[in-house]
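hiii, so i know i said id send this last week but things got crazy w the move. better late than never?? heres the sequnce for the chain we talked about at the cafe, plus the structure i predicted for it. fair warning i was half asleep when i ran it
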Amino acid sequence: MTAGIRTGDGLEVRVTGGVVRGVREGALLAWRGMPYAAPPKGALRFRAPVPVRAWSGIRAAGEFGAMAPQARVVRLARPVTVLAQTDEDCLTVNVAAPEREAGAPALPVMVFVHGGGYSAGSSRDFSGQGESFVRSGRVVYVSFNYRLGALGYLDFTRYSTGRRAFDANLGLRDQVAVLRWVRRNIAAFGGDPSRVTIFGESAGGNAITTLMTMPTARGLFAGAIAQSPPPDAVYPRELAARWAAEYLALLREEVREVAPDRVVAPPDRLLADAAADDLVAASVALQVRTPDLYPGAFCFAPVIDGSVVPERPFVAFRDGRAHRVPLIIGTNDREGSIFRGRVDILPRTPSRIADLFARAPGHARQAMRDVWPDLPARRSAADFGGDFGFWYPSTRVADTGSRHAPVWSYRFDFAPRLLKLVGLDATHGVEMFALFDRTDVPLARVITSLGGYEEYAAAGERMRRLWLHFVEHGDPGPTWPRYDEPARSTLVIDATDRIESDPRAARRRAWDAFAPALAG
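okay and structure toks below
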């Protein structure tokens, strides 16, 4: 069986490594849990992905692969709230395609990067499955797992020794490995490798804007969609080195009781020998302490290593070195309102806000206070933090990126009645249930329980049509004007959609002065 040829029932496909057999689910064909790289375990822990290991016979591809190691929680955003298996052997990819006649033209491809703060989530979450996009009959859909937390997003390269080396930006390297797998294999599933669009939300959105500036990702995609990205969550090596050192101290505390001999082990041995659960526990401890010690920063994020990520993505967009492909980028109305309790990672507490004001130029502080006169009151603090993390840096990517390539900007404003009553409004991630037509998952049923279901679903359907048009044609259609700096035309998605010119201009100008490193 040669590459790209299926058996008579269309379910057996040869991919890199061997033959896989998928499953038929109505008019949808799915292949899940296919390895795109060798298991990053043992000597390959903390190393760049290496080619997949070949297998003999036919590999069953009907079930999702294991999730990357992460804190074990029940997630209401999953269709079935189960504690799914986690394993370091997590580098797997899934493909879903509509059933079509033999010889039909190849379809464009959507590759989804899941969110979760680079510390949680997987392709088995509802947004990783993409059935509504596939059932349109217009695309082939790809999702995948990649390394998270310390295993994927801390830089331990300074601890490399002659017996063990460490690589940086492992989660990003995994994503590039997936895109290369797609380039080589997607034709076998009816996809067109020259028409690949990458998209993602939250940390997945950060992945999109970062991949757009990475030399190793050049030519691997033709379009990009970044939903609620924190595009400036990419940090210098000096800061990443401090986080790695703090992590090692926390890891030693985790292993002290179970393996006291390892507490005094050198860093390379400690990292190599620690159990995955201990690595995750130390990751959680580092993640909890970082927002107060480093206000405005997030420890699990890409690092500017000079090679995989050669420079700040903002600089690459500004100077025209980002890949010149069409981009949709946008955020939600009140990104910061959901970040409370365990996920309180934004600069929204009085001390964190005071730290940002202390770092801002003196002349800019009053203008920011004029925009937010009641800081640090709860609502204003949440929106200040959401602006800092998501909205304002996204406007900068739109501004600078539009000088060199086509850009479209949006803001998702629709919120079901319950979210308005509890003060969340259109918060971070709320568009995902509607966009993916998964208003049946438990959390979506809750947020629409007091009304707004029809309008919410309709907003998602309109958004989905725009995304599909973009994937097919390289633009979202004639009703959505292209973004440029003079007009800053932005699609506001609400019960009734509208186009606004330079929305929240006063806030944008205040941030221009307050955060000159972001303003460029």
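btw Confidence is low (pLDDT under 50) at residues 1-5, 74-82. thought thatd interest u
miss u guys!!
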